[in-house]
Design brief:
The protein has 246 residues and is an alpha/beta fold. 24% of the residues lie in helices and 26% in strands. The structure holds hypoxanthine.
Length: 246
């Protein structure tokens, strides 16, 4: 059985190269996962894959059943999750198609089911979230990244926004003042739920566009898609290198 899962985001709804053994529909106490879990082997290693936005990319960030996704993965024995997520670049050095392995995050989301510690409690639990990402998986990603020509930024602060609209320029100015380097819509509550379940979780972020007010006047879906084409190709190369290390 796989102990490693990849959660694919925008641009990565299918995991090419995965030699699929079976698909598994999962129903959890929180509902169904976004898509069936695809089991297979990749570079000789057992891997499970979950498309965060659904197999046909129809679930927007604020409608994703994050609790079902994380609970389902834990239930089938997953211990490590590598999450792939498209982001906007706020830091001037974080350019479209480049990758970032964030080390911190700030949560600006709201109205999402964001914890497992809400119902039928016998006691109140506060998880430690000082460092929201799993150190060992981050190190493996950074080791694997060393040999590539494309840029993999070894750290960054991820700002998680509610979406599905993109931000205003003033909102991005505020995020920048807060210390955010990149902005995305799916990083939370995913990371916190993984920590609540004691899973090792790290993110590989791929820059789809300069954030609002940081590039061309308007951000178009066509630009995002064009950048992600190359960016996700970079992600695939990194996955091929890191998965055997995990
Ligand atoms: N903002 C938020 N989420 C995103 C962006 C953005 O600019 N690009 C890709 N996901």
């Amino acid at each position: 059985m796989s102990e490693l899962a990849i959660i694919g985001g925008t641009g990565l709804t299918k995991f090419d190269g995965l030699e699929i053994t079976h698909r598994q529909m999962l129903s959890t106490p929180y509902g169904e996962t976004s898509s069936p879990i695809i089991h297979g082997t990749y570079c000789g290693k057992s891997v499970a894959f979950l498309a965060r936005h659904g197999a046909r990319h129809t679930i927007p960030p604020h409608k994703i059943n994050y609790r079902a996704n994380l609970w389902g993965l834990k239930e089938i024995g997953i211990k490590t999750i590598l999450a792939v997520a498209a982001v906007g670049g706020i830091h001037p050095n974080m350019r479209p198609t480049e990758l970032i392995i964030p080390h911190q995050l700030i949560d600006y989301t709201h109205s999402r089911e964001h914890t497992f510690f809400a119902e039928e409690l016998t006691h109140v639990t506060h998880i430690d979230f000082t460092n929201p990402y799993c150190d060992s998986l981050r190190s493996q990603l950074l080791t694997a990244a060393q040999q590539f020509d494309f840029k993999v930024h070894p750290q960054g602060v991820y700002g998680a926004t509610q979406g599905p609209r993109l931000e205003t320029a003033a909102e991005i100015d505020r995020l920048e003042k807060d210390g955010c380097d990149i902005v995305g819509m799916t990083g939370m509550p995913e990371a916190a739920l993984a920590r609540e379940l004691e899973l090792c979780y790290a993110t590989c972020a791929v820059v789809a566009n300069p954030a609002a007010g940081r590039g061309a006047a308007q951000i178009t879906m066509a630009d995002i898609e064009a950048n992600l084409k190359q960016g996700i190709e970079n992600v695939r190369q990194l996955l091929a290198e890191v998965i055997p290390l995990i």
